[in-house]
Specification:
The structure is a single chain. By secondary structure, the protein is mostly beta strands. The protein is 8% helix and 21% strand. The chain has 3 helices and 19 strands. Strands 11, 12, 13, 14, 15 and 16 form a 6-stranded antiparallel β-sheet that branches. A hairpin with an 8-residue loop joins strand 14 and strand 15. The longest helix has 29 residues. It is elongated.
């Protein structure tokens, strides 16, 4: 009995698997592209570029004209100059809106910024060919404002929130009922120099104006950083709200100017008005007309009626400022002082040298190079980090990594006087092994200034000493130099070596200059110097056995912390 049951289950499983396999095969065949339903002109779906469902476009017959097809066809016409009669006017459609009907209504006007992708809404229409597009534009006031020929003049009793009514309908600086400004109303009003910022009231709440950008909804000027540009930055002067026509900035290009974009652009005399639009501008100056008038000190700011303009002396961070009343880079249109920075060409903000070192800036340049050093006329010398840079800049990867290629030792107090030693290494790969050259210079540490430690000096402490030197500073620098193989068959056989050669070893051409820059303790120091000429005696000093070596034009710079 159990055997019959088992056989029955196996047979059932086989049939179920067969049905599933055949179904999957059939389903896969149905997904073949040849079996897919193609778009047609009678599928009751608007597709394949049709202007309306199953008509118009590149494939279907023309759509029959109607008075709600959002297409300029039939004999539709508007009585308003500059407007189109779309779905109105003519013998079949209801009358179009006019500029004398006592109603605030909308008109169809040409918009060069629209494309076929904008079709579908109630406020966009097209011509019969689908190549020209129109937008439905509302009058600014009753029978006034573009495209009507009547100027739009805000009033305090028209029931409309006009341009100069800041916080609500029929209130604002021109109305008897004022709108009390707040720091949260989304409007620049009161004493604000930006939207809800830049006033003493907002500042007291901890609100500061954000840095202007290409997406803040405000037409402004700001700095944009881009390391690919020659100067590393560019001044963005927006030509419209969050747009310009400069390909080097991140702002998008401004759209083609129109008489209904809410911006003073093109040849307009004010915002969307003037001879270019066929609509006169409001003869009364306002703080929203895009023009510097009515006693304003800037466009729509300053003067007796408008909010104050951002300035370089208002005590607030606003406009393109990096910090309060100062800029990161010069802006011609906003001539503030530059903030202390790591690129202002001034040694400030605890920098160890101009625009480098300290807690804010990158490390200062470090190197030890010699125009010529060594026996037999000598050869140029570079510490290995500087030496490698020559290879890298020449797109040559053949470099050697040398740990501590340039380093400075701690201050040596004993024996007096205090001094520091700087050591530089240059390694060169040859067929016979690695050839190493080493230069070490011992520099007197300044320890004067009334026994005040240089690290505690409130300002950089320069010290320039030229031969025969200042007796109070102790002896002049000393130089050690050696060269020879450190690997290969000639390892250990120094080509030239000297112990300590005094810079002023009776040679009147020898001279040196050393400059020490110290700041506060946490910032450390920066040591720069130059030795113009020295004659180096070989190790052992046996006259005539090994020729002297000559050093000319040694320059060094190294940054270090007080702990080094």
């Amino acid at each position: 009995m159990l055997t019959n049951y088992t056989e029955s289950m196996r047979f059932f499983a086989f049939k179920l698997f067969s049905v599933l396999f055949i179904s999957a095969a059939v389903f896969q065949g149905c997904r073949n592209e040849a079996n897919e339903i193609q778009a047609t002109c009678f599928d009751e779906v608007r597709n394949q570029g049709e202007l309306r469902v199953d008509c118009g476009g590149p494939n279907c017959p023309e759509c029959p004209p109607t008075c709600d097809d959002r297409i300029a066809n039939q004999d539709e016409i508007s009585p308003v100059v500059g407007a189109l009669g779309i779905d109105c006017g003519g013998t079949n459609c209801p009358p179009c809106a006019t500029c004398e009907d006592g109603i605030r209504n909308a008109h169809w006007v040409y918009d060069p910024n629209l494309t076929i992708a904008d079709l579908g809404g109630d406020s966009v229409a097209t011509n019969l060919a689908g190549t020209v597009f129109y937008r439905l534009v509302m009058e600014k006031g009753i029978d006034a404002g573009y495209p009507c020929p009547n100027p739009y003049i805000p009033t305090c009793g028209n029931g409309i929130q006009d341009e100069d009514e800041l916080q609500g309908v029929d209130c604002g600086p021109t109305c008897k009922v004022g709108c009390p400004p707040t720091c949260f109303d989304g409007i620049q009003n009161g004493n604000e120099t930006g939207v809800d910022c830049g006033s003493p009231e907002c500042f007291a709440l901890g609100i500061i104006c954000p840095d202007p950008t290409c997406d803040d909804g405000i037409q402004n000027i700001h700095i944009e950083y881009n390391e690919l540009l020659p100067d590393g930055y560019i001044v963005v002067v927006e030509k419209g709200i969050d747009c310009d026509n400069d390909p080097l900035t991140s702002c998008p290009d401004c759209l083609i100017p129109t008489c209904f974009d809410g911006i003073k652009n093109g040849n307009e005399e004010g915002i969307d008005c003037g001879a270019a639009c066929g609509t006169p501008c409001n003869p009364v100056a306002t703080c929203f007309d895009g023009t510097m008038n009515g006693g304003e000190t800037g466009v729509d700011c300053g003067g007796p009626n408008c909010p104050p303009c951002p300035t370089c002396t208002d005590g607030f961070k606003n406009g393109p400022e990096l910090e309060v009343d100062c800029l990161d880079h010069p802006i011609l249109q906003y001539p503030c002082e530059l903030c202390p920075s790591c690129h202002d060409f001034i040694q400030n903000q605890f920098e160890l040298d101009v625009d480098c070192g300290g807690p804010e800036c990158e490390r200062c340049e470090e190197y030890l190079i010699v125009a010529s050093i060594g026996p037999g006329g000598g050869a140029p010398f570079y510490d290995n980090r500087t030496y490698n840079n020559f290879f890298i800049n020449a797109n040559n990867p053949d470099t050697l990594f040398v740990p501590d290629a340039l380093k400075i030792g701690p201050t040596q107090v004993v024996p007096a006087p205090a001094k520091r030693e700087i050591t530089a290494i240059q390694q060169i790969a040859t067929p016979n092994g690695t050839y190493q050259r080493t230069v070490s210079i011992t520099i007197p540490q300044p320890n004067l200034m009334g026994n005040i430690p240089p690290e505690a000096a409130p300002a950089p402490l320069p010290l320039t000493t030229t031969s025969p030197g200042l007796i109070t500073l102790g002896p002049p620098p000393t130089v050690k130099y050696s060269e020879g193989f450190i690997s290969g068959p000639f390892q250990g056989m120094d080509n030239w070596n000297n112990d300590i050669s005094l810079l002023l070893a009776g040679d009147p051409a020898s001279q040196y200059t050393v400059v020490y820059n110290y700041k506060l303790l946490q910032s450390g120091g920066y040591l720069k110097g130059r030795i113009s000429f020295a004659r180096l005696k070989p190790f052992g000093g046996i006259p005539g056995s090994i020729p002297d070596a000559v050093l000319s034009n040694l320059e060094f710079a190294i940054q270090y912390t007080p702990q080094e």
